[in-house]
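Limitations
The structure tokens in this dataset are predictions for the assembled complex, not deposited experimental models. Users should treat interface geometry with appropriate caution, especially where small molecules or nucleic acid strands are included. An illustrative entry is reproduced here so readers can see what is and is not provided.
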Amino acid sequence: MSLLLIPLLPLLGFLVNATLGRKLTKTASGTIAVAAIGASFGVAVMVVWSLLHQAPIGGVRAIDQVVFSWIQSGPLSIPLEFRVDPLSSVMILVITGIGSLIHLYSTDYMHDETDGEYARYFSYLNLFAAFMLVLVLGASFPIMFVGWEGVGLCSYLLVGFWFTKQSAADAGKKAFVVNRVGDWGFILGMAAIFATFHTLDFQQVAFRASQLPIETSVGIVTGITLLLFLGATGKSAQIPLYVWLPDAMEGPTPVSALIHAATMVTAGVYMIGRNAVLFSHAPLTLNVVAVIGCLTALMAGTIGLVQNDIKRVLAYSTVSQLGYMFLAMGVGAFAGGIFHLYTHAFFKALLFLGSGAVIHALHGEQDMRRMGGLRKELPITFWTFLVGTLAIAGVPLFSGFFSKDEILGRTFASGHTVLWAIGVATAFLTATYMFRLLYLTFFGERRAAAADAHGAPAHGDDHGRGAALSEAGTAESKGHLHDAPMAMAVALVVLAVGAVFAGYVGVPETLGGGNRLEHYLAPSFVAPTIAADANGGIAVAPPVPEAPTAAEGESAGTEWMLMGVSVLAAFGGIGLASLIWFRNPRIADTMAARFGVLYRTLLGKYYVDEIYDAIIVQPIKRVSTFFLWRGVDAGLIDGTVNSVGFAVRGSSAVLRRLQTGSVRAYAMSLFVGVIVIVGYFLWR
Amino acid sequence: MPEPTLNSYLLLSAVLFSIGTAGVFLRRNLITILLSVEVMLNAVNLTFIAVDRYRGTVDGQIIVFFVITVAAAEAAVGLAILIALFRHKESLNPDAFTSLKW
Amino acid sequence: MDAITFWILAAILVVSSVLVVGQRNPMYSVFLLIVSFAALAGLYIQLDASFAAMIQIIVYVGAIMVLFLFVVMLLNVPTDDAGGEPRRMFGAGPRRIGAVLSAVFAIELALALVRVVSTPLPSSDRGAPVATVYDIGVKLFRDYAFAFEATSVLILVAMVGAIVLARKEAR
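Predicted assembly:
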């Protein structure tokens, strides 16, 4: 069956909803959208099934499809080609599977919108899925880039979905513009790749790169990979281009779940995985990747600890977990990074959707300081949310544990002990802030504010939390809160199941599992020996992939010890969180007061946005206004055009005097002309 | 008395033409201006005939034929315009008609 | 004999032309122009262009000048300069320029024309074949047929134009 169908079906869903949406009922548009992505999931399952049963050629399994020849220009030949191999098979299942659940969830969540808006939402959601699928299925850089840009566009559209709200519109713009900076790096990287390898097909690039020696200093491959990584930081919200993601929470919660948790932000990780051979040849870049990933994880974790908006906490948590994935990629554990991507998709989507259910039940309330005690009233939401929280905290037996442990283990084994330590600290922080979130939201007494006396939390004013505790619940909280409606509940439950069991494909050998995922993914990360032609043949006979599971020099004992440390970190975080927010919330207030400066810095997100604004945004604005707008545009260009007019006007004012209206004057000038002409012929 | 040569005729024609031109510029009566134009035309006619005689052809006379015809048409139309103008402004001074200036 | 005729006729021609330009009363100008045309016709005859001479008398004098006379008498044309218009645009200065320019032009033209090779006209060639009307007619309707037809259209146009232009605005 056709690979083309996988992105095509959601694209068709987009077209239908975009053109006819306003005339369709909500049921109709919702059904179309869910059906489109659901069908795509079905096709994806079938494709992966056939891939699994394909006899590997030299260890390689892939399904290839060339749709048509897109660009043919001299040496550059780019067909519209899709390719499924183990790596992209994982991706398409995640995108379509979790995507379908989120589409289903949205049918209830967005129900308050008008018909037209509802359809518009679903058209964008389908379009996003289509582009994301193109991104992961593309067999060459340009195809991936089409998807890359497309998801950026859809992110803008969806984050700014409620564009009449100024903050939402701004957030959409910010997402797009910051992404664009990353895309610039990506494009330059692509150009450099073409200049160096004269091809843009992934297989070919990998093959040709594998012929090169591994660079020990800054060389061309390092440059290329750094540029590509810049693109990844933009798309996957790492330092320095992560600033758009927290703001992107302005969009509807299912959007946050799909785009900013499960799929789009993982594009950067996928891209590195796809070009594993290239990156493997630039250890310097890999170091950069690991360091940045690690630092981002830590930084985001600290910020998430003090945020009051439930979605912001989850946003920073996403940035933090993405940091883990990049850490994995950076130490060479490509399969580990993808493993975490996969488990994270489950539990992060679950967490976001759960928070969406909370927000939905509270009619739009997002500030955790006004929540509390929802455990009894929203049981389904609570239990699924608990599962997600346990998973992200890295509690054993849940999926997050296996993937996070894999990453930390490989980090330690590769010798990056400092990074490992930071990773463990971040795991501790993760558990802490996630359980903080859980307790604030679901436990204790309802703290809805009577009159909205507490202003915007951005000012770092945290007194409200302490004061609000003593308030009795108001009339709002006394009312019956309805738990998640059917569609939302189904999605939550399925994801919860996934959050538990999804990790079992990657259980490491020390625990008895075969780490099947890693074996499955391994061929995707090595180079083919003979590259294919541009007409879509498949690479032949790659070298036997080195068994990456047996981490060099790591004994089973070390692995047990590392695992123990991870577990300790997880439970330590849970314990700390319970101590404060479950037992005695006032401790948090006192600590906030004691470490006022630190607290405010964290609450203000290290003021990164403000710094960027001052250093980058304002100067650009100033230059644009004064120089480009007034100087060049109004002055130079308008001036030039206007001066033509002025010149004409001026000269005509002079020449106008010739029109005296006196016939004789005209005759005179005529006569003078005659004299001149006759004179001319006379002198010849 | 010297024999008239071609040059004498041509010279005569030149003199006549300039007299006509002077008349166009110096008179302030439209009719007189038109008459001066006729004088100019006649000068040209003289040139044609003279050269014609010199060369022994008859083309000149034919051209003169046409010139006279056209002069007739032109005089007719010119006088018609003149009449219309006179009706409008009761004056035949060309300086009176200046409404075409900017 | 021819020389004397020439000079007399030439003199009449020039003098009457100057007077045409110089007369105040347009009526006199018209009559003087008729005189100059007559002299011109005489010159044509001397140049063996009898056809042209006759055409000149009949058409030019007989029709066009009569037309002029009609108009002059119709309009009761006042004598010159009675318009009373302020001559701010064509005062004495420009007029003198006009006169000077005319003189310049005359000289220029003369210079141009006398560059033509000066040969005596074969005037006393009585035996030479004189162009007859027959010859002219043949040439006219053969070589210049198109011009002839076009001229007829021109006359038609002029006729229509004159009627339209000169009629009273009777609304």
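Some entries come with short summary sentences. For this one: The two ends of chain C are 63 Å apart (CA to CA).
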